[in-house]
Design a protein that fits this description.
The chain is an alpha/beta fold. The protein is built from 14 helices and 20 strands. The protein has helices spanning about 30-35, 35-40, 75-90, 110-115, 175-190, 240-255, 270-275, 300-315, 330-335, 340-355, 385-390, 430-435, 440-455, 455-460, and strands at about 10-15, 45-50, 55, 65-70, 95-100, 125-130, 150, 155-160, 195-200, 260-265, 285-290, 320-325, 360-365, 460-465, 470-480, 485-490, 495-500, 510-515, 530, 535-540. Strand 7 and strand 8 form a beta hairpin. Helix 5 packs across helix 6 (about 240-255) and helix 10 (about 340-355) runs parallel beside helix 13. The two termini are about 35 Å apart.
Length: about 550
């Protein structure tokens, strides 16, 4: 079984915003190909590419009208093949984003489905009669105040968890199974090393259409993606999702001997629920996304420590993911810092992301410390969620800004007008400027990735939290070769980490591998380690720690 990904680092490219090659203001395949050397030099192993399929672009490609065709905005199928070829030359693998939960309402399947109640593809989607009062069948909410849209022609409602233009497929229909599995085969056969499965725990709903319970506040685990006061227990994370994933994994194993990687986007309340998506016999997803770190609302060592302890307790025997930012919620630099502290916090977050036990996902621009640039007016809004929620919720455009490559015109993202405005700080936080600065955030990312590559304890060792300091998050990474101590001062004040509180750490010396502030490489730590505000420090021991007695 091929498990190349277990020690890997992933780079998430939001294709629309990465690099435009033809001046239309939209990133594309050729632009990505032109920047592969940059990604390879960063030191990552694989690129997750956001959707590029034919689409009306109501939801920027997550509303698919042809799953086996490349949207002309992004290039051609030949461009995709070239991307695979050029990535392979540089030792990079490509993971594609597959949308199995729904299609566009412009998809030929849905167009056929809505023709009549007797249509051949009627039951490929979820159609229901109105409630007795003529309204929607139940109270379900999703991206819009109701997940049901009435069709005048056939006098029924169809179900869409996301936008009206994204009708959900009926996964209780075996014909849907076969068609969507064939789409997975298509892209793997073209060279994709794996699939990132969008909204994969949304595939099936309660067959009795029971109302979701109304709550006073949104469940914390849904804070980043859900905006209504409802607990979607009958629409998200239904137990019947697991059988579908088992069938998909078995299908792929049977047809692709390399056992392609399946990464699943799942929003669930806790680690016990995440664990279920691996399957009882490694027969579902190899990597269900663990988004719990990204739901921490404040920069708080106590909360992060509790989460790490929970991860080790419940996910300690399986590979897990480490995610701080992505295309659906504000970047971590915005969530956890003010502009004046942003670069310091960005380096700390990089250290955190890349030294935890798990497989890190770097969101494009995260390695530059890019900050969000949300719309100032409703006229600037591109994301439909921002239009629906304005002004209380401005949508996701702010975390999807074009990649700044230089301080020049439009950051050299495009020669034309970009689809959305660049980050406000792009003349300072851009690739060209940071590549020349050994103290930049980009240089820091490369340093930490290099250390992670070199020291096996950081990419396959155990993790143990050390102490309970309210401001300093400390943990050990250890294996049979060495042990590493990571100290993260998550406060805006100087703090002291006292090694004498942990006698087993004093049985040997610790030398600095990396510090964002005051310690030089090779400098030996004293008993009382002074940490500057937001300082991150990585140190290596002179011999193995007694891991069981720290």
């Amino acid at each position: 079984m091929n498990t190349w990904w277990e020690e890997g680092i992933f780079y998430h490219v939001y294709l629309r915003s990465f690099q435009d090659s033809d001046g239309d203001g939209i990133g594309d395949f050729q632009g990505l190909i032109n920047r592969l050397d940059y990604i390879a030099n960063l030191g990552v192993d694989a690129i997750w590419v956001s959707p590029f399929y034919e689409s009306p672009h109501v939801d920027f490609g997550y509303d698919v009208s042809d799953h086996k065709a490349v949207d002309p905005r992004y290039g051609t199928i030949e461009d995709f093949d070239l991307l695979i070829k050029e990535a392979k030359k540089r030792g990079l693998k490509i993971v594609v984003d597959i949308i199995l939960n729904h299609t566009s309402d412009q998809h030929p399947f849905f167009q056929e489905s809505k023709q009549s109640r007797d249509s051949e593809k009627r039951h490929w989607y979820i159609w229901c009669d109105p409630s007795p009062d003529g309204g929607p069948p139940n109270n379900w909410q999703g991206f819009e105040p109701s997940t049901w849209e009435f069709d005048e022609k056939t006098q029924q409602y169809y179900y869409h968890y996301f936008y009206t233009e994204q009708p959900d497929l009926n996964w209780r229909n075996r014909d849907v199974y076969n068609e969507m599995f064939s789409i997975c085969d298509f892209w793997i056969d073209r060279g994709a090393a794996g699939l990132r499965l969008d909204a994969i725990n949304y595939l099936v709903e309660d067959p009795e259409l029971k109302d979701n319970p109304v709550v006073d506040t949104i469940p914390e685990y849904l804070r980043n993606i859900f905006k209504f006061n409802q607990d979607p227990i009958h629409t998200v994370n239904h137990p019947d999702n697991h059988q579908i994933l088992q069938d998909l994994r078995q299908h792929l194993r049977s047809n692709h001997p390399e056992d392609p990687l399946l990464i699943g986007e799942i929003w669930v309340p806790n680690t016990q629920e995440i664990l279920k998506y691996y399957g009882s016999e490694d027969n579902e997803l190899q990597l269900p996304f663990n988004f719990l770190l990204s739901t921490v609302p404040e920069f708080n060592a106590i909360t992060f420590r509790e989460m790490l302890q929970d991860f080790e307790k419940n996910l300690g025997e399986v590979p897990t993911t480490v995610v701080l930012s992505n295309h659906d919620f504000p970047r971590a630099t915005v969530r956890y810092s003010q502009e004046k502290d942003s670069d310091q916090v960005a380096k700390l977050l990089a250290t955190f992301l890349l030294t935890l036990r798990g497989i890190p996902f770097i969101y494009y621009g995260e390695e530059l410390g890019v900050r969000d640039n949300p719309p100032d007016t409703i006229e600037e809004v591109q994301d439909p969620r921002g239009t629906i929620g304005w002004p209380d919720y401005k949508g996701r455009d702010g975390c999807r800004t074009p990649m700044p490559w230089t301080e020049g015109f439009q950051g050299d993202f495009t020669t034309g007008k970009p689809w959305y405005k660049l980050p406000l700080d792009y003349q300072q936080r851009n690739v060209a400027t940071q590549e020349k600065d050994p103290l930049s955030i980009l240089s820091h990312y490369k340093q930490v990735i290099g250390i992670r590559r070199k020291i096996s304890a950081l990419h396959k060792g155990k993790l143990m939290v050390v102490g309970n300091d309210p401001y300093i998050l400390a943990y050990l990474r250890t294996d049979e070769e060495t042990d590493i101590l990571v100290l993260l001062n998550m406060s805006s004040d100087r703090r002291i980490f006292d090694l004498t509180d942990f006698p087993n750490l004093l049985t040997h010396s610790w030398s600095t591998l990396l510090s964002t502030h005051s310690y030089s490489v090779g400098q030996e730590l004293t008993e009382k380690v002074m940490l500057e505000p937001f300082e991150a420090l990585i140190a290596q021991s002179s011999r193995i720690v007694d891991f069981n007695n720290v």
